[in-house]
Amino acid sequence: MVMKKEPTRKDDGRQLIYYTFVIEPKDKAPTEQER
Amino acid sequence: MSELRWNPVLEEWIITATQRQDRTFFPPPEYCPLCPTKPGAFPTEIPAPDYDIVVFENKFPSLRPDPPEPAVEGTDLCPVRPAAGVCEVVVYSSDHNGELATMPFEKIHKLVYVWADRFEELGNRPEVEFVFLFENKGREIGVTLAHPHGQIYAYPFIPPVLERELRGCKRHFDARGGCLLCQLVREEREDGRRIVATNESFVAFIPFFARYPYEVHIHPLAHRPAITDFDADEKRRLAEILQTVIVKYNHLWPEHPSLPYIMVTHQRPTDAGSEAYPHYHYHIEFYPPYRTPDKLKYLAGSEAGAGAFINDTLAEEKAEILRNT
Lengths: 35, 325
Prior knowledge:
- The complex is a heterodimer.
- Chain A contains no helices and two strands.
- By secondary structure, chain A is mainly β.
- Chain A is rod-shaped, with a radius of gyration of 16 Å.
- Chain B starts with a strand and ends with a helix.
- Strand 2 of chain A pairs antiparallel with strand 3 of chain B, so a sheet runs across the interface.
């Protein structure tokens, strides 16, 4: 999992952060068998 | 008006935040402030037309980075101080409907990474002593916005419950050596009756001393004082067991396909690194308010007035039910 964050400021000065992700094959949900 | 008022009897800070009386209360879906802003529609808190996970400073904060001076004067016994800190909202999805339990595993996995980032960034602020991540879910808990979200409070003090936990764990460490929470986890695993779920890195159980009928705690098997101490595999397994627990909650009773709960994260304070906390470690606690499908567990006289919880159920029985759900 690779996370990127994009901090911005709202008009009133409050911080707002957008998070985006790159999902790698090993990050996929476990199968029932793996559980 | 907003300030911290000291209670010298209980030795705790009370946050007054009168502006919160005016906060948005269950708006209709078309006026949800946590949805993406739509073209031509009213501006929400989030200008982007779509998003994955967004964090922003609460519009009605109890604590703020630039707090006003207290509106009242304190005394020697009852001092006041500015309500410095940060209150953030963590919006899980641009989709107004749904909840964490119905979202794909990848979403919960991403959220764990966001939590770790917020813990680190907010914990680095000089005025912050404790970063508290939590989710209030359901009207019964007092939620005022239906859009799926959690919250973060970065306090300028260590909150009373955490201070008490830290003190108890330090006392154990000094007297007997080792982390008390690690010892409790070992005992719960050896006993087994209160285990709800487990994986290679975490265990979920209803503690021996549970205060709520379906109070589940999630602990790492290894000693990890903070979420930032988890490696990539542990973060993935935390997301896995978290999903397992919240899905079990929703399957508990057909009357509550979306069971309300309070979910809180307890971890080390941010005044020092994890090496300073060999006696305390990370865990998540859930407090669902229902004791049966149609009965709420109220905090009444004994709980609210004396701090003495009465649990009408046995943790062993409720854990077996959740384990088999």
